[in-house]
């Protein structure tokens, strides 16, 4: 198992896949219940985050969040002497949740099984961060608390600063991409112009 973990951090040129396991872990789940819970949260918050960021930026942020949260998880596990794989799906979904809660802190949320109990998005985000911080500090293994924290912090940072620092600088490229797709769609080139 030590060799398995080491391959993620090695700079050996013979190791061909440094980030691909972290990227692919963005789509990994521990169980069907884990997948169902993650897909419900993603379904609940994805339309809001796509409205905030647009579809291209959402995909870029989601994939980046999976890699970042998995990396944070590996660092935390190695620091604790635990050499086990990480699943980045929850961290990426925490990025989506944190982005929405940061941009719309007064939005009302409820738990699916307790719809009569409502709270603000800002309060929910604070509670989740407090829970995962306690879990990481106390060594709980209920969830991958480091991945959750990495994803949440990345989501908060991205909607506060990252959009301006990163995505705005890429706008000319995205605009050229949209123009190219529109031209190809008009010529019957098979492109979509949504």
UniProtKB/TrEMBL annotation:
It catalyses: Cleaves type-1 transmembrane domains using a catalytic dyad composed of serine and histidine that are contributed by different transmembrane domains. Gene3D superfamilies: Rhomboid-like. Pfam families: Rhomboid. The chain crosses the membrane at residues 21-45, 57-75, 111-131. It is found in: Mitochondrion inner membrane. It is a multi-pass membrane protein. GO terms for cellular component: mitochondrial inner membrane. GO terms for molecular function: serine-type endopeptidase activity. InterPro entries: Peptidase_S54_rhomboid_dom, Rhomboid-like_sf, Rhomboid_protease_S54. Its main location: mitochondrion. Keywords: Hydrolase, Membrane, Mitochondrion, Mitochondrion inner membrane, Transit peptide, Transmembrane, Transmembrane helix. GO terms for biological process: signal peptide processing. The keyword Iron-sulfur does not apply. It is an enzyme of class 3 (hydrolase). Residues 22-162 form the Peptidase S54 rhomboid domain. Its EC number is 3.4.21.105. Belongs to the peptidase S54 family. This is rhomboid protease. It comes from Trogon melanurus (Black-tailed trogon). The gene is Parl.
């Amino acid at each position: 198992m030590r060799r398995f973990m080491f391959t993620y951090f090695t700079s050996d040129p013979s190791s061909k896949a440094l980030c691909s396991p972290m990227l692919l872990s963005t789509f990994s789940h521990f169980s069907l219940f884990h997948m169902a819970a993650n897909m419900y949260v993603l379904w609940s918050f994805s339309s809001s985050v796509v409205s905030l960021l647009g579809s291209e930026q959402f995909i870029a942020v989601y994939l980046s969040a999976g890699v970042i949260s998995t990396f944070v998880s590996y660092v935390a596990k190695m620091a604790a002497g635990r050499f086990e794989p990480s699943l980045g799906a929850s961290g990426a979904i925490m990025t989506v949740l944190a982005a929405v809660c940061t941009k719309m802190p007064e939005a009302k949320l409820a738990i699916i099984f307790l719809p009569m109990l409502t709270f603000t998005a800002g309060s929910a985000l604070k509670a989740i961060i407090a829970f995962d911080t306690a879990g990481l500090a106390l060594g709980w293994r209920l969830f991958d608390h480091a991945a959750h924290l990495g994803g949440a912090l990345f989501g908060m940072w991205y909607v506060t600063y990252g959009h301006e620092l990163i995505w705005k600088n890429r706008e000319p490229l995205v605009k050229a991409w949209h123009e190219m797709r529109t031209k190809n769609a008009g010529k019957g080139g098979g492109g979509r112009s949504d």
